[in-house]
Specification:
The protein is of the alpha+beta class. It is built from 3 helices and 5 strands; from the N terminus they run αβββαββα.
């Protein structure tokens, strides 16, 4: 996903929807990783430093390249050839990586964002 307006809108809607589940003093710092091919990666870092910043990182060729370039302990080895479909969640420490594997408009809609937030909250609460 190359469209910065669509990436920023997803970030805005995600933060707006997840805020009601967070303690009042928790802020969310976002790094957006656009991809030349299909998809994008969002890194949401929860903090108590009032850091609600948004950064758009440099464009990478694939989601796999993003995962090899950023610190993460969930997917190892050569990630270059990995492809993702739909929305994938990786939770690690105080952050969530959301991997959007496709550019299908349905995956980027307001309803999709609400579904993604519900998945994050239900997973973090230990339910299905």
């Amino acid at each position: 996903m190359k469209k910065s307006s669509k990436l920023k809108k997803y970030n805005e809607l995600f933060k707006r929807n997840i805020t009601s589940y967070l303690a009042p003093d928790v802020a969310i710092k976002t790094t957006i990783y656009p991809v030349e091919g299909q998809g994008a990666v969002f890194e949401f870092e929860f903090n108590k430093d009032s850091d609600n910043s948004e950064t758009i990182s440099r464009m990478r060729p694939t989601v796999g390249r993003v995962l090899s370039d950023i610190p993460q302990n969930l997917i190892g080895g050569n990630t270059e050839g990995i492809t993702f479909g739909g929305t994938n969640l990786l939770m690690e420490g105080n952050r969530i990586l959301i991997i959007k594997g496709e550019d299908d408009p349905e995956q980027w809609s307001g309803n999709a964002v609400q579904d993604d937030v519900r998945r994050v909250v239900s997973t973090s609460q230990g339910s299905k």
